Amino acid sequence: MAPLALAPGAGSRTLPTSLVLCAPGGFSEAAEVPPYSLEKMTDFVAVWDVALSDGVHKIEFEHGTTTGKRVVYIDGKEEIRKEWMFKLVGKETFYVGASKTKATINIDAISGFAYEYTLEINGKSLKKYMENRSKTTNTWVMNLDGEDFRVVLEKDTMDVWCNGKKMETAGEFVDDGTETHFSVGNHDCYIKAVSSGKRKEGIIHTLIVDNREIPEILK
């Protein structure tokens, strides 16, 4: 696909925010994709934001529908580059984040020269993966000493992550449940787990920092 050019004096313009289906010479609407400047846009066809325990990762994909070129970027860094591909459809598999989570971009032909791009995480569609993840993790965001922190609890393993780093923790039993202790800078933190008494709700996890409860981010 040839780069899109601006007419003299046209200035900087942006493409629509829904660009996932691509055909030579144009884009079709399919899913939310952040806008790009026409001066820089060439073969970008899809962008996804993937929330993992170590942070939110941006995955960008370029697909040249004339050369078959495929380029994958993770958080702005090039992960895969294939300049010439005889087959325009197929898939690209790579790994994201500190836990090396498996990700696959599927390239499927829709009709003629139009293509659809879908992202799978650990073998599931991105939507299903995030729905399942919302049931198995808790996330809190807080500001300490002028710095933002994102704390994630993986409920199946009780691993705690803070700003992309897996924390050292110490667990202890208390009268009404358990506490998982860790430190963020000079601040004492712990996640308290108590039974809700209701089968559907199960265990309730609460983050306490310096004896103050931090509200959980609702998914």
From TrEMBL:
The protein's UniProt keywords, in alphabetical order, are: Apoptosis, Cytoplasm
InterPro entries of this UniProt entry? Answer: FAIM1, FAIM1_dom_sf
Gene Ontology cellular-component terms for this entry are:
cytoplasm
Q: What is its main location?
A: cytoplasm
The lineage's top-level taxon is: Eukaryota
Q: Which GO terms describe its biological process?
A: apoptotic process; negative regulation of extrinsic apoptotic signaling pathway via death domain receptors
**Compartments where located:** Cytoplasm
Q: What does this protein do?
A: Plays a role as an inducible effector molecule that mediates Fas resistance produced by surface Ig engagement in B cells.
Family assignment from sequence similarity: Belongs to the FAIM1 family.
Quote the protein name from its UniProt record.
Fas apoptotic inhibitory molecule 1
* Natural source organism: Octodon degus
Q: Which gene encodes it?
A: Faim
